[in-house]
Amino acid sequence: MRMKRDRLTRGGCAVALTLIAGVCTLDRLAARQATAPGIQVLPVQGNVYLLAGAGGNISISTGYDGTLLVDAGRAEMSEAVLDNLEQLATLVQMPFFPLAPCVGPRCPGGAGTGAYTGGGSWTSQAVNGTVHSPGSLKPLRYIINTSDDSEHTGGNASIRATGMTFTGGNVARGAGGEGVGAEVWAHEAVLSRMVGEKVDIERHPQMTYDTPKYKWNGFFNGEGIELIHAAASTDGDTMVYFRYSDVISTGDILALDRYPAIHVDRGGSIQGTVDALNRVLDMAVAQNKSQGGTYIVPGHGRIADIGDVANYRNMVIRVRDRIQESIKNGQSLPQVKAARPTLDFDGMYGSPDAFIEAVYRSLSVR
Questions:
Q1: 13 pLDDT higher than 50
Q2: pLDDT of 106
Q3: Which CATH number goes with the domain that contains 227?
Q4: How far from 198 is each of 82, 109, 173, 238, 249, CA to CA, in Å?
Q5: Whether residue 139 sits in one domain with residue 122
Q6: Fewest Cβ atoms nearer than 10 Å: which of 45, 175, 181, 270?
Q7: pLDDT tens digits for 159-176?
Q8: What would the pLDDT profile of 243-289 be if each residue is shown by its tens digit?
Q9: What is the DSSP string of 254-311?
Q10: Is there a single domain that holds both residue 219 and residue 292?
């Protein structure tokens, strides 16, 4: 998402003229839905948005520093992802809404909420058109991968290529040192596995971390971001915590539409999954009992809150304990599957075969 002018005006939409009240975005939206009907962009909370339908959920922060993604979806969905990112960045980064007739603390919404949102503002409607007039969009700057799974990293190469890395002085960390392309981050285990499996180098992360928690590069779009390592689905999982927005992106540690995908051959484990879900519960704060407050973007499925995570964690623990008891009783994997230890959850999470096998293998090698 280099945000070139030809890309911004593609489809006959002149941005400088059509951002007033969002005119012409409906045409763009209809065109995208015709080619990628599964794509949806939804607000989560604060600066964070969810792009769903690209293979795995993508979390987006876009604003005055540019755009940051958590995961990149499948490779074949990259063009649809870029089209949606472009529109979202345009509407968020370049507001041009001199629409509210009221200015001041007595306006709906109260003082300081911004004139273009219908509330009070320190500025005047007479100058809003200048203060918020469209300029060049800030580029895509970072992609953070939550694991090495292709549903989350497949789009790295093509999406990264549309961005730009900003660095100080004459230093540039992009491919070849020229600063071209967004910077991809992940845990070092992701890079090691991609190198070992000879994955296309354009999909590799350029920057890695190897600590339990990493305070990522200071502030971005007005908030601190933390990368938190977990060995759950794989040994290189990363949870991303947007501290101001109070949103946690978990990757495949949490997937509300299916059982956990635990890749034992890639360092994942059932106990690591339980520990990671408990870590999310420790970090999250509910607004009212177990609802609201911190929102969680799973690797797959809908936006969640602390109650959803607790229910999912409890399911995982129950299944783990049942399979552990079967192993103590000397039952083989086919016997465990025949006993149907997930029966009371299958209506919610679908086929349990891969999950049961992963839990059995994980517990058997302890």
A1: no
A2: 47
A3: 3.60.15.10
A4: 26, 55, 22, 22, 27
A5: no
A6: 175
A7: 999 999 876 554 445 444
A8: 999 999 999 999 999 999 999 999 999 999 999 999 999 999 999 98
A9: EETTS-----GGGT--HHHHHHHHHHHHHH---SBTTBSSSEEEEEESS-B-HHHHHH
A10: yes
Identify whether residues 89 and 138 lie together within a single domain. yes
Domain housing 346: 5-96+133-364
Rounded distance between C-alpha atoms, residue 167 and residue 174, angstroms: 10
Residues 128 and 153 in one domain: no
**Same-domain status, 243 and 359:** yes
Q: Examine the fold and report which residue of 132, 152, 186 is the final residue of a domain before the chain moves on.
A: 132
pLDDT at 194: 96
Residue keyed to tokens 């484990």: 269
Residues 37 and 80 in one domain: yes
CA trace torsion 112, 113, 116, 120 (10° rounding): -50
3-state secondary structure of 249: strand
Residues 168 and 199 in one domain: yes
Q: So what's the pLDDT on residue 212?
A: 96
Which residues, including other chains, have CB under 8 Å from residue 68's CB and lie 6 or more apart?
60, 61, 62, 140, 141, 142, 143, 144, 220, 221, 225
CA distances (Å), origin 113, targets 106, 117, 187: 11, 7, 38
- Residue 113 shares a structural domain with residue 166: no
More confident residue, 154 or 98: 154
Query: What pLDDT does residue 134 have?
Result: 55
Q: Which of 215, 162, 212, 211 is nearest to 184 (CA)?
A: 162
3-class secondary-structure state, position 213: strand
- Residue pair 147/237 in contact by the 8 Å Cβ criterion: yes
